[in-house]
């Protein structure tokens, strides 16, 4: 496996390993939030992936988005590949709700993450690991 | 062709018609910014697309991102599908530079668009229409 950027590692919990991507939970209780990290070395931009891996990533993003929609009943799923702070290619898949703290703006760079109460985190991890296995 | 959301139509200029997507220039002189709109009816989420169209969209995003990188020498390309304001599925592909007005945050919801001087817009449209034809 490619090394995970230390900041990504610090901000997330592992959920699943898919054929291409690690699936991570972003530790921000303000939003149901997944991060996909394609497990190939030296990726920064989407176009750094081989086309077959890119197609695989797209299907993994769609699966993550659809599962998040089903699990949360979100009004909208936001998908983003920014990488202005952490260079290693990673894709955010975030469940958004009308009236959430950043709505209708983006979640990135808005406010520091809200810590999960440990029991809420444990429950979410258990549920999501099962749903996304 | 599927109808283009009136707000997308008002905020953009047409650049090209690709096999799946309309390619649009976002009229914000602060950032070199493309928007891809898959030309299918009733799309809101990425997972509303058929898998073959989704693969096609991914290749079109990669092409747009790579061309923007080449044209601008950007430090990073940001790709996002948000849709919190405009529901019609559309994908932002934005060239980002260290020190640009929103760096390292996202461009969305940051500040009102900066109008292009007409001659700058005309030149950019001509250049990008050729590069992205």
What does the model show?
2 copies of one chain form a homodimer. With 133 residues, chain A is of the alpha+beta class. Helix content of chain A is 32%, strand content 23%. The first copy, chain A, has one domain (6-124): 2-Layer Sandwich (HIT family, subunit A). In chain A, strands 1-2-3-5-4 form a 5-stranded antiparallel beta sheet. Chain A is globular and about 40 Å long. The mean pLDDT of chain A is 97.
Summed up:
The structure is a homodimer of 133-residue chains. By secondary structure, the first copy, chain A, is an alpha+beta fold.
Detail the topology: elements first, then pairings.
The structure is a homodimer of 133-residue chains.
Chain A: H1 6-11, E1 12-17, E2 21-26, E3 33-38, H2 51-72, E4 76-81, E5 91-96, H3 118-131
Antiparallel strand pairs in A: 1-2, 2-3, 3-5, 4-5
Name the average pLDDT of chain A: 97
Overall form of chain A = globular
Output the number of helix runs of chain A.
3
- How many discrete structural domains of chain A? 1
The largest inter-chain interface, given as chain pair and residues per side, is: A-B, 33 and 32 residues
